[in-house]
Structures
1.
Amino acid sequence: MSESANFRAAARVRMPSIPPASGGAVLVTGICGRLGKQLARVLHRERPVVGVDRRPFLDKPKDIEHAQVDIRRKKLKDVFRPGDISAVVHLGVMHDPRASSAEHHSWNVAGFTKLLEYVSQFRVPKLVVLSSANVYGPHPSNPQFLTEEAPLLGGQNFSDIRDLIEVDMLAQSFFWKLPETETVILRPVHILGSVHNAPSNFLRLNPICTVMGFDPMVQVIHQSDAVRAIELALRPGIRGIYNLAGPEPVPLSRYLKILGRQRIGVPYSLARIILGRMWSLRLTTFPVPELDHIRYICMVDDRRAREVLGFTPHTSLEDTVRSVDDGRW
Amino acid sequence: MPQRKPAKRSATSQALARIDRAAREAPAFLGRLFGAAGEAVDDALERLLGEPFAERMARVPLSLGSSGIDPFGLDPEWMKYVILAVATLHRKYFRTEVHGVSSVPTGRVLFVANHSGQVPIDGALIAAALFMDGEPPRLVRAMVEKWALSLPFVSLFFARVGQVVGVPENATRLLAQGEALLVFPEGVRGITKTFDQRYKLTEFGLGFMRLAIETDTPIVPVAVVGGEEQYISVANFEGLAKLLRAPAFPIVPQMFLPGGQLPLPTKYRLWFGEPMRFTGDPDDDDAIIEEKVWLVKQTVQSMLNRALKERKHIFW
């Protein structure tokens, strides 16, 4: 038995008092990200939490187990082996625009396939995958609000995110491959907060460059609301795909106004060239195709999440937007 | 000499102080200027509408959020300027006569009109009539071509004045919200008609009928008279249009005369018909939908014929 499994067995002995709320521990991949840590803090009060991440979990709450493994390794199986995992939350999707596409593919697709294999092998009854509304992609011909049935065209103009779409598709195939597992795919709009994702980093810029003549309507969601949606998705009986949106959509310019940022409008053709140069000189973390997010709409219809999941965002628009400044370093 | 020096310095510093003062006052002055312009816009609108713009706007059934912008991007602040321009065309330039606007049902409604005039002024005037002459005032939405929304400024403008991408999902959602939608089932075929084909309806598309049945929306037929004479197109260069990938290339002789680029100031007449309701299966065969579409088309055509018969003069 491996080290982590030993530790797991010991942990179970140490805390037998926690009743398996809906059947035991929640395994969270990518727990060392900012969103993962938030989720862990919320979840560990109610049920055992097992974290999987190749990064070390600093300032980890005592009752959370952490297995520092790469999800592509066989070692991952040891985490499942004790057989008390009742839910898997997959947050460990890599979206580092600087990483090579081979690395992306092997991590996101091969790693996730491994995870799915163990979910089916150990008959885990619940799987929650955090995808993103970006899988639909920003396009001028998008309907104002995309439903869960809309085609995933995000990779059409931005081939680097094709593996993220593949993750979503793999999870979808699980609906029929393993119907006894309740699979939930969450597709939140831009998550804002102390997280270090592209939309939050973009709003942290000052001055902020926008594309001249474009001011699309944009939806955002606060990280704590995203975490709550994951909690709701963990309830027994919930399955399917859910778009998640936060407060009402407003134009991009309104976000900049709330933050009091200076705004520089650059014509698209020029912006593309400048950003391309900056990208190749490693001066920016935004690849050129992401400009489409500040040109075209990519908004979702979150009716299903409100009605079936019972999700309503709690954080107001102003608080959601201002929260990006918490994540500065 | 020693006396001149301080005088010279003071002149320089005075000049600098003056520049400084001017620079400091400039924002305030500009603010006043814009404020005055804003007031002038408000006054002009009030004269045209017969009441303050904000009061009229408040009666429009819209689903504005707490941010004051509707989910499709419509911003009433932008509307003010657009409505001023369109209202001026409506009242002063084309002196539109509006008939039957009182029979327009409240709640969701689909306006089906004939399309004419090379430039879609007819759409703007229908919108103006519904906002200025209808009670309660309505803001009608039209569906915009997809490519228009990939253009800078154009896409921004369309979104802020409430125009949406022409996809069925948007239409269904807007009607479910109880909004008014304007469609020209003739499409580009209608607007690029040559003068000899004036007021003859071309083929109608079927999409609007499926939409109306699916959402149980009343259809209000609208006849627009006056548009065909604003730009007299004698021919359509189809080969050139294809080459330019444009929908049409009309030859309009007046364009070569000074001032002829403006549309001729014909008198527009808008006739709103009685609402028509259709039931059935929205996914029926084209043949069955076509029959219903034919009914609407015939209604618009007969309204057009009657309006043309009643018209005494093109310009007044």
Note: The first helix of chain A runs from residue 3 to 14.
2.
Amino acid sequence: MTEEKILLDHGSGGKASHALFSDMILPLFENSELSKQDDGAILTVDGTRLAFSTDSYVVDPIFFPGGNIGDLAINGTINDISMCGAIPQFISVGLIIEEGLPIKDFQRILEAMATAAKKAGVKIVTGDTKVVPKGKADKIFINTSGIGIIPPDVNVSGSNAKPGDKIIVSGTIADHGITVLSSREGLKFDSDIKTDSAPLNKMVQSIIQSDCDIHVLRDPTRGGLGTTLNEIAAQSNVGITIEESFLPIRGPVQGICELLGFDPLYIANEGKVIAFVPQKDAQKVLEIIQRDEFGKDAVIIGEVIEKDPGKVFLQTVIGGVRIIDMLTGEQLPRIC
Amino acid sequence: MALKYIEEYRDGSLARDLVKKIHSVSKKDLRLMEVCGTHTMSIFRHGIRSVLPRGVTLLSGPGCPVCVTAQKDIDAFVEFARVKNVIVTTFGDLIRVPGSSSSLGKEKADGADVRIVYSVFDAVNIARENKDKEVVFCGVGFETTIPTIAASILMGIEGKVDNFSIYSANKLTPPALAALMETDGVEIDGFMLPGHVSVITGTDAYRDTFEKYNIPAVIAGFEPIDILQAILLLIQQNEAGRPALENAYPRAVSDAGNIKAKQIMHQIFEVCNASWRGIGEIPSSGMALKKEYQKFDAAIKFGMDMPDTPEPKGCACGEILMGLKTPEECLLYKKKCTPMTPVGPCMVSSEGSCAAFYRYS
């Protein structure tokens, strides 16, 4: 037997990533905040609840249709904080740059970060820059962390899903992963797809500030919608059922998935929210999301059920049923 | 944007009509086998088992190229990755398949240059760009893939790319069907024949096997309507006691198949015996490079001849591939063997029946 090593699979966001977290990371760092396993930690300081989150970006290529690693890194952390029900305020940026990166590329990335932060209304307040010798990193890696304030009375968590909740997705799925994949060397598709990378803080604010109950908010990034729904089913100990015919997927994205054998349910999104909302408020929340510039294609895709806790079912177009498991095996490395 | 040939063949009301017909026709208990990994995946993906009558059992036969690859061939791929200055190129599914001591994924983590390609032509291009290295392509495929591998050899000759070679663990479908029919204990009431393979081979390639064994056989496409239609035909043939070889995928498959692809395939390769995982050697079921192209044969170039190694103890991949066991009947399934820690290739490949069972049921 060869010595156990970290494999790409451990970074997929699927089963191997979860095992790495629960078997190695959590036991050593264990505390009540980390154990909740939401997109960010909820911290209470002098009676104010803060959401604190961090994420690293290693996407390849660093430029792709609709964005680059810079705005991706800002939007990603803004969204992680927003999914805690918080209003993002401050962001830190850590840059690890490979020697030889063209200055004009670096400039483009910084400009994209500045624009994204401005659009979302958050400040980049601290940071760090390191340069490593050529070949020791790939062009540029970015870490962003952020802090947001959770308004009083807001209580969203992946563990709050309740039977009867309707599940809303804020738009088409799999756009980001397929865009990045199709801009890679050797896979040039002639299509007009682009990343969905977008800040969701304003959309989230308008729903949490409405008088509607919101149980869960989550952005289905790495591992895709399928993995995220599994996480929520496990955290809340409920079953989930979704309708295949309701899933919003762009034609070209579907086409590329068919061609390469990918399941859009497991492909990363960077500008989508999944909201679990009690039935009484579902229609209203859906309409609020649809009014947002990033939520026009929002739809209800399914609901939470009492039986089969921890499991996610898909009602297929032909009237059959299949189980949606977490992603196993790296579907697409370095997508974010 | 509507996707032609997808939306029409996923039409919900058409599918429900077919399901109704299947229920009204079906009387006998039947065991139908698909011999294509893409069928296996599609059957799970669309929840087809959940709409069929209880008496109709779908079996996943030897149709996933990764799953039928013998242990010694996997070991050879791992060995190539360990040779200095060799770039191993492969389709993605092979990366995680465990050999006797390691996998391509583990060798990659150890620093070996293992690259996933989407086409064998990418492997030729990698060779062109890395003249100081040797590029080996892991040839694991059926009639669908073999012609493109043959074309890559022609591309190598034309471009004078002499640092490119392939290891051929390629296999042919019809001999495997015949071998299944000859195996004791195998009970199959009909074959759903592979759509992609048949595009190349044509319906005619199955005629000898059909005439010898007189078993219902229907060539099927991959959308739910295609598959339901093929199942309906197989049931109708069984109920009427009139086995036939039918083509239910005429929009892609002709009687003669793709003549040009077959020509290229037979120009470069010749039929040989081949080892199938769990099944053993099947006569005339493999494709080896002809003598005049042996400079592209990685096994010869590197003197690679791995010993036959037994498959992991308890792994029932072979019996599962022959429909003798279901994945749930394998002692390792969901215990020692999961997609995270696969023991056999049927659990690794996305088209493998164990992985599909694990993921979807």
Note: Residues 317-360 of chain B form one domain.
3.
Amino acid sequence: MKRQSMVILLNENYHVCTGCALLCDDIEVITDGKKITEVKTACRKGVSRMKGCNEPMSPTVDGQQVDIDVAISAAANILKNSKSPLIFGLGNSTDGAQKKAIELAKQVGAVLDDTSSFCQGPTLEAIFNDRIKSCTLDDVRNKADVIVYWGADPSNSHPRHLSKFSYFPRGQERQRGWEEDRTMITIDIRKSHTAKISGDKFYQIPLQMDAEFIDALIDALSGKVPKVSFEFDPKRILELANILKKAKFGTIFVGLGLVYSLADMEPVVRLMDKLNEVSNFHLIPMVGHYNMRGFNQNLFNETGYLNRVKFEKGNSTDVQHGAEFSIVESLNNKTVDAALIIGTDPLSSLPRSVAEHLLDIPVITIDPCETFTSRKAKVTIPSALSGVECGGSAVRMDGEEVKFEPIIDVKDQTIRPSDEEILARIMEAL
Amino acid sequence: MGFGQFLAAPEHKVTIVTYRDIFQSAVMEEGRFSEEYLKLSAVIKMDAADIKKLDVKVGDTVLVKNKDNNGKVIVRVESSGYDSHSGIAYMPNSPWSNALVDADTGGSGVPRYKNIEAMVSSAKGESITGIDDF
């Protein structure tokens, strides 16, 4: 059988995976010129993402396939006729696309929100406002001797987190690796795959008891006897406090298990303050989408808020912020009358009872692939897959900027412009 | 027809915690409308003793409905394999778990994805809620 000609990109030509906010930058691929056929180094999710989906989206209006220009024009008309549009998503878009979306939101007077609104928003807000000390993943690899995963299971959410950055690598100051130089702790309500790796440093607490456990830990760090209302040996809390106290460079990785358990971030701020009185601790949120943090940073730089904003039409300085401008409350209260959804799938990821309002209003989706939302949308506009079909930059979960080039030659693929280009063309059509 | 026919199927109250599964996440990247995605998503993992109380076996279908009875799905039941955790069940994040999450966030804008109050009962022989049912 004749072997297909292949372009092999190895060693000297690493690529960036946009499967999650780790933005692994050591990916090798094999392509047939139009599509990636093999992916080396990436995790299971990264491989699936880079190879592309089985159901690419087509340009459509009212379910009928149209030319992409017609779809873009229809999208502009929806936004033009809307009194209160919602723009949502952008966690899977480049910085350039995000900045363009902020401009568009100002132009049409939109509510603008992203998935951090019901994800790591509170953690990032505390970091952006310097209430919590953070560090880079490279610092963790080179220096961290104590690593805590709290309400996080990277073995499933970010499979290369432990091997590339936190526990297994031999960093500059951690040459003896995980065997001698690092201690990994997991605090969770269940013995996750990550918890199993922690061995006897797994601390299992009951559901919704994180705040109480934090206070007990602060007591233990303060030399007091820790007390909790649930069954838990105080000696184990003292043992944990002792490990944290002795850390030379500690990092807590916060997952949604912890974020969802707390009413606000105050307990975490208190714990970090105490830890930095007696030790040296940093915190990094386990961000999911590859550029969610980028969106938050870009919007924060522009407005001082990282999500949940509403712009006044035509007045770029008038911006309101609050829970009422979150996607969830905007849909619950039916305060938006059209939606532009970019690179995300709210009909899949939001509670069904919340997302149902999207079925009553005109929805535009921009995405490389068909989604639950796109199948119900009035207008669909297919876009390039970031990191494969278009380049740009993004912000890793630790705040580091990562640049990437497209892998596939996109010259002949005008059918799938980037999110940034689509948004620019919608703005022109407006 | 036996007497059991007239008895309501036993219901068990659980708090559902959603989680991420790398196999399901990878399949989702390939496409959200595949049989494989349904198979890996429409699942509830329960305590082995709780499964017994429902009079079902691992692999059977169960009806899961939320406390306000405005969200219900039929999914496959599996044993979690964890130590005893009666009253707590686990579901991967998906449209199936999201059908059960309460819209009311108390104005916070953050749904209780990891704290869903629900009732589980046997739905032996019934089909799993399909993607088109959403």
Note: Chain B has four helices and six strands.
